[in-house]
Specification:
The complex is a heterodimer of chains A (389) and B (346).
Chain A lengths: L18 E13 L11 E13 L3 E5 L6 H8 L7 E6 L2 E2 L5 H4 L6 E4 L13 H11 L5 H14 L16 H13 L5 E5 L7 H18 L2 E5 L3 H7 L2 E6 L2 E7 H6 L4 H9 L5 H6 L30 H5 L15 E2 L37 H8 L8
Chain B lengths: L1 E14 L2 E14 L3 E5 L6 H8 L7 E8 L2 E2 L5 H7 L4 E4 L3 H4 L6 H12 L5 H14 L5 H4 L9 H13 L5 E5 L7 H18 L2 E6 L2 H7 L2 E6 L2 E7 H6 L4 H9 L38 H5 L5 E2 L7 E2 L7 H20 L5
Parallel strand pairs in B: 3-8, 3-9, 6-7, 7-8
Antiparallel strand pairs in B: 1-2, 1-4, 4-5, 9-10, 10-12, 11-12
Helix pairs in contact in B: 4-5, 5-7, 7-8
Chain lengths: 389, 346
């Protein structure tokens, strides 16, 4: 039986599947530069109108490239940032505007695990005291009682409880991430936000931590928001996945559906860029290589934000921001923000954008030069002659 | 034709904690125009082994041989090395921002690189070549961007600029040390394509160091798997993925979520990588290996031919013919299954 003396939460709540977290039209802008009188200030549109629903017991994956706003989204949900506008409803309570002081008791219920297990642990403090921090801050246990609880946690996440008095530097990367997990688990959180929890780890250690997170979820009925840029890991752990691009969600779907039947061309391009650890598969598939870089989030493109790089772009993509809704007869769980969603089995490489050059990122990706142009260039760059030293 | 032949390379560092034996007897060779992938986890010695060849491991104790176009790079003088590094062996690293000098224009840095090795070339010619190179690696409007500073480039563009610089003198060998690790997948795909294209264009041999087996599957011809400062297995790409011999390779492949397959529980390799401070005798992988035998803990297995494929080498005491090895694997898998299935009696 669990009681208040146990560090570990009880069994999964019976009513799994109800909504734990509801985010509506969340916006977070960061000001850039210094403010000057009579001048309009620029803002980074880090998160720009994101809505999502996370159900109890679920693992909700968020993928996207650097700068797409996935970490900002996580920090807004945990209320580490004040939000610009929108609404966050957690477990039936609106937490979008409450003060940091009133947020404090709620922090027991929303915890985070960070990417960098070294940077998120104070090097000068002992592991036992780091993991015991939550108890100290919330004044719940002290002395021998706290030590017992911490050691119980350490054992649960696969650390040796006798290492209670060691420093973080004495642990390996995987073990440090376990310390982070133990700390997040100290109170029985309802939601754990994992921000790139395994991307700093080696493959074999990565698998250990993923298995640990899965075990803890099964045991305690935890809900995860799992942020990562490694798509195969996200597919493996998540029940549903949201894809973000430039501060917006472009597509949300159950994990397997997203990976087998993507609707948004960005999802399609992202999936095709993932290196497959199987030589035959990777030889057979045709990669869609996006041209150029992600545009600046300070002045994001009009309409669909992906239109400057999208092979299927048409004028309506420049003019209108497509709503996130079911496309091509998909169920209510599969939403895409796209005017020209992909059919199943469609080959993106066959499409050419039908919009003005001015609206596109067209500039020579040299690697996409026509092949016949290359020999001449080789000569110009200098062949073997005149180079032998 | 063998371009680079490394024989029995040992590298150790004197540290405050003792002598770290980072590389312990690594041998490999790479042919002209070939792509050799070196895969391994942190601390496996994959970077140190290539940095040593180019003379970038200062203060290390080095033994062995590294013949490049007939010359031993390990005994070459600093002057000779300066002529080879950059001109004949190009290098790109994981973090393109720290590889570029923040105070100088990107074009200037490429020009300096060219003129350092080619004294006949005028500044104007060198700049023209820099523009061409930037265009080749896919920098938009190269004639304008050549005058940009590194901070004005995105991560992917910086790595492209590094490739342009590394290829500026048409080296015979390009060493790419985790070139895409810091990049997003779509940018990674762009950069890998650029490397491949440059390789086709110039016939360069590439040593690609990575921890990502997906990247290996995509670009490598031959693969070297390193662990604990030693080579565990060498095989061509398909053999490595479909008929690997070494248990470490097997463990690595199983640790990854299957692409599109069933969501089975991941099978990580238990335990931690070994410390290279005072490595125990025997196979470095023995403490984590499921097939471990007594012999593995005492004797170091040599890198011997394995399986039917010529050129497939494995440093493991397991039988090197497929039938015997598979029999052992099945037996161990059976025991493992029974152990994980439920409470054991014994």
């Amino acid at each position: 039986m669990t009681s208040e003396t146990s560090a570990l939460p009880g069994t999964a709540p019976a009513e799994a599947g109800d909504v734990l977290l509801q985010v509506d039209n969340l916006v977070k802008y960061f000001p850039v530069g210094t403010s000057r009188p009579f001048q309009k200030r620029d803002y980074v549109h880090a998160v720009d109108g994101v809505s999502l629903t996370v159900r109890r017991g679920q693992t909700f994956g968020v993928v996207g490239e650097t700068g797409c706003g996935k970490s900002t989204l996580a920090r807004c949900i945990a209320r580490l940032y004040d939000i610009t506008s929108g609404r966050i409803t957690f477990d039936g309570r609106d937490i979008s505007q409450i003060s940091q002081r009133r947020m404090r008791p709620l922090r027991r219920e929303i915890q985070m695990i960070f990417q960098d297990p070294i940077g998120s642990l104070n090097p000068r403090r002992r592991v036992g005291s780091i993991i015991g921090d939550p108890y100290a801050i919330h004044d719940l246990a002290s002395g021998a009682e706290r030590k017992r609880l911490v050691q119980e946690l350490m054992e649960r996440v696969g650390l040796n409880p006798e290492h209670y008095n060691r420093f973080p530097a004495e642990f390996s990367g995987g073990q440090r991430q376990r310390i982070g997990v133990a700390r997040a688990l100290a109170f029985q959180p309802k939601l754990i936000i994992c921000d790139e929890p395994v991307s700093a780890l080696d493959v074999s250690i990565q698998a250990q931590v993923i298995n640990l997170l899965a075990d803890l979820q099964a045991e305690f009925g935890l809900t995860y928001i799992f942020i990562a840029h490694d798509l195969s890991v996200v597919r493996y752990v998540s029940t549903s996945v949201a894809v973000m691009y430039l501060g917006k969600i472009t597509e949300i779907a159950p994990a397997d559906e997203l990976f087998t039947r993507p609707r948004h061309p960005y999802t399609g391009a992202l999936l095709s860029a993932v290196p497959i650890p199987d030589p035959d598969l990777s030889d057979r598939r045709e990669q869609i290589i996006l041209v150029g870089d992600v545009p600046s989030p300070i002045a994001p493109p009009s309409g669909c934000r992906f239109h400057p790089r999208c092979p299927k772009a048409v004028p309506v993509c420049v003019a209108e921001d497509p709503p996130l809704e079911p496309r091509l007869g998909d169920g209510p769980e599969h939403l895409a923000a796209c005017h020209r969603p992909m059919e199943a089995g469609e080959n993106l490489a066959e499409f050419r954008p039908a919009i003005d050059e001015a609206e596109r990122i067209v500039e020579a990706d040299g690697s996409l030069l026509p092949d016949e142009a290359l020999p001449g260039v080789t000569g110009a760059v200098g062949g073997q002659e005149g180079r032998t030293s | 034709m063998t371009l680079l032949e490394v024989e029995d390379l040992h590298v150790s560092f004197n540290t405050a904690d003792g002598i770290v034996q980072a590389v312990r007897g690594v041998s490999y060779q790479i042919d002209a125009g070939q792509t050799l992938g070196i895969v391994g986890e942190s601390g496996s010695g994959k970077s140190v082994s290539t940095q040593t060849i180019t003379g970038l491991t200062r203060g290390a104790k080095i033994s062995g041989r590294a013949l490049f176009e007939g010359q031993d790079l390990l005994t070459a003088s600093p002057d000779q090395m300066r002529g080879i590094r950059g001109a004949k062996i190009g290098m790109i690293f994981q973090d393109p921002l720290s590889s570029l000098h923040p105070y100088y224009r990107v074009g200037w840095q490429i020009i300096e690189m060219i003129r350092l090795h080619d004294h006949e070339m005028s500044k104007v010619q060198a700049k023209q070549r820099a523009v061409e190179l930037l265009g080749l690696v896919g920098i938009p409007q190269p004639e304008r961007r050549v005058d940009d500073y590194p901070h004005q480039f995105s991560g992917g563009m910086r790595q492209r600029a590094m490739i342009a610089m590394a290829m500026a003198l048409n080296p015979a060998l390009l060493i790419a040390d985790e070139p895409t690790t810091a990049l997003d997948v779509t940018v990674q795909a762009q950069v890998l394509r650029v490397i491949r294209r440059m390789q086709e264009l110039f016939g360069t041999a590439v040593i690609l160091i990575t921890h990502d087996l997906g990247v290996i599957a995509e670009v490598a011809d031959e693969v070297l798997v390193m662990y604990g400062g030693k080579v565990m297995e060498r095989a061509n790409r398909r053999t490595l993925f479909f008929a690997s011999h070494h248990p470490y390779t097997e463990g690595l492949l199983q640790s990854m979520p299957a692409y599109g397959g069933e969501r089975e529980r991941l099978r990580p390799i238990a335990g931690q990588p070994p410390s290279l401070l005072a490595p125990p005798p025997g196979c470095p992988f023995a403490p984590r290996c499921v097939y471990v035998m007594d012999r593995c803990r005492q004797e170091d297995p040599p890198l011997d031919p394995a399986g039917e494929e010529p050129g497939h080498l494995s440093a493991c005491w397991l039988p090197h013919n497929a039938a015997d090895r598979d029999a052992i694997r099945r037996r161990v898998a059976h025991v493992e299954l029974a152990r994980s299935a439920g409470p054991t009696e014994a």
